[in-house]
Amino acid sequence: MKAVKEVSKLTGVSVRTLHHYDEIGLLKPTTVTPAGYRLYDDTALERLQHILLFRELEFPLREIKTILDSPSFDRSRALEQQITLLTLKKEHLENLIDLARGLKMIGVNHMDFTAFDTSKIDEYAAQAKATYGTTPEYKEFEQKSKKRTSEETRLLHFQMMSLFTEFGRLRNLSPDSAEVQVQVKKLQDFISEYFYTCSNTTLLGLGTMYAGGGDLTASIDKANGDGTAEFVYQAIRVFCEEREP
Amino acid sequence: MKAVKEVSKLTGVSVRTLHHYDEIGLLKPTTVTPAGYRLYDDTALERLQHILLFRELEFPLREIKTILDSPSFDRSRALEQQITLLTLKKEHLENLIDLARGLKMIGVNHMDFTAFDTSKIDEYAAQAKATYGTTPEYKEFEQKSKKRTSEETRLLHFQMMSLFTEFGRLRNLSPDSAEVQVQVKKLQDFISEYFYTCSNTTLLGLGTMYAGGGDLTASIDKANGDGTAEFVYQAIRVFCEEREP
DNA sequence: TATAAACCATGACGCAGCTGGAGAGTCAAC
DNA sequence: GTTGACTCTCCAGCTGCGTCATGGTTTATA
Predict the structure, then answer these.
(1) Do B130 and B65 belong to one domain?
(2) Degrees to nearest 5, angle at CA A119 with A116 and A123
(3) Nearest-10 crossing angle of helices A4-11, A15-23
(4) What backbone phi and psi angles, to 5 degrees, belong to A8?
(5) Number of folded domains in chain B?
(6) Does residue A130 share a domain with residue A94?
(7) Which residues pair with residue B38 across a beta bridge?
(8) Does B94 reside within a domain?
């Protein structure tokens, strides 16, 4: 039986953290002496190790609690989700690093800020709902969206923007060039993974929407350079024709 | 002159956030109507864009304030530092993703927890201070350490551990194999970048310390496999001999 | 056996960067 | 003059603890 200080030394967590974990019911001491001292046995230590493991993986404490408390919990799925989240974060960081490098070169005054403006996405989402609200793809999208945290959503928006930014950079090239086609594939895969199964047909539908000439087209062009929306559409057309002759 | 809601729509930040930025003095409205309404002009909007840019790059609001308020501030250096931090975070995420994947495979019960135990690092740091406290390397180390946030420190500890974990994985190989030597170079570069200029001589000194047989050796071996400390030492010796014949 | 050192407790406040709600005032339009 | 959209100022709360403050408990030593 070990008291707080010793547990702290063994595991590297602070005494305060142990208090905290007791408070929120994440790790209760095995026994408490009449004087109120917390005592932990080896089982508790093991639990603490598990807690620290999941904490390191950036699981919220709440979730760690449910993971450890319900043995029937699907840990594999939780891990899978967390891997997705961490990967998303990692990719986001890569974008940010690029951004910071660029910023260092050209200075803040010459920066293009439109690239962060994810504010209109909800608007377009509403439009999309009106148009496609009944399709199975949209339902799949809604299903997946429900489960996401706001953080995840934010990251996804950003990633989506980055994909278009990349198209903007490539828009001098021919739509059928290998580099551009790779980017189309990336877009399709991204949508499939995070939003809904994106068949070539669906992708083509999206393409026509992007280049449709409405607010969305304007918004894409404004953020990534004139003609980007149309360029993406052309690239998508090539992509779909090549794969389905 | 725009009121909060309109600014919110234009930039995607919430009204509440504008209030917050006003409170902390990060973005004051250009004027305030007699009724207390906040009004922002284009200059303010521009400042807001800059704020959002740096916020996206994960600068703390405090720092954003000083960056924007003092034109003499060395932004380039600040960006450089932030790039380092973001890179560190990215690499840490890569480690976590690997960890999560491993965990998914072998399950939580077969995990090796020693890899997170960065708790003894402070202890060894104290020892190092006693031994090397007067050397210029140690002073450089102290200088750099002072400027770091706890988050950064944590990430550095973790990265350091990962470097050793990698040695642990390679410890069946010959110390003079290319792969191992690359890893030594990584270690040297890492130390040079984040702690102090690590010449071959210094590196060799570290090596003897690692394999010295004390608590540190035991700790390294426990976390990464028996013989890792000695293996690292041998690898370092080969490295230094090859480079300085 | 007294007392100091080391350890333990609770409780409250603080941090960052906000979000959300209550309750009330303001403004333009119909 | 009333509706509805907008605005304001508090206040509470979130995560995961750090950091006192204040006081009780245990153990080692004198």
Answers:
(1) no
(2) 140
(3) 110
(4) -55, -45
(5) 2
(6) no
(7) B32
(8) no
Strands B38-40 and A31-32, bridge-based pairing: unpaired
A149 has pLDDT over 60: yes
Does strand C come within 7 Å of the CB of A39?
no
Task: Report d(CA B172, CA B14) in Å as an integer.
Answer: 56
Per residue in B122-167, pLDDT (tens digit) is 777 777 777 887 888 888 888 888 888 888 989 998 899 899 999 9
Choose the mutation target among B43, B69, B92, B96 for the interface with A, i.e. most A CBs under 10 Å: B96
Contact A56 B116 (CB under 8 A): yes
Q: With H, G, I as helix, E, B as strand and everything else as coil, classify residue B45.
A: helix
Please state whether strand D lies within 7 Å of residue B6 at its CB atom: yes
Buried b (16+ CB within 10 A) or exposed e, A159-197: ebbbbbbbbbebbeeebeeeebbebbeebbebbeebbbe
3-state secondary structure B99-141: HHHHHHHHCHHHCCCHHHCCCCHHHHHHHHHHHHCCCHHHHHH
Q: Are B52 and B123 members of one domain?
A: no
Q: Model's pTM, two decimal places?
A: 0.90
What is the nearest CA distance from A111 to chain B, expressed in angstroms?
9
Calpha distance B79→B59 (Å, rounded) = 9
Q: Based on the fold, state whether residues A154 and A63 are members of the same structural domain.
A: no
Q: Which two tokens stand for residue A197?
A: 């199964």
A31 C-beta less than 7 Å away from strand D:
no
A-chain CB neighbours of B83 within 8 Å are 97, 100-101, 104
Minimum CA–CA partner of B106 in chain A: A76
What average pLDDT does the segment A203-224 reach?
88
The closest of B230, B223, B245 to B175, measured between CA atoms, is B230
pLDDT of residue A244: 60
Quote the domain boundaries for residue A96: 74-108
Q: Are residues A117 and A212 in the same domain?
A: yes
The CA R_g of chain B, rounded to the nearest whole Å, is: 24
Q: What is the CA radius of gyration of chain A?
A: 24
Q: Is B31 helix (H, G, I), strand (E, B) or coil?
A: strand
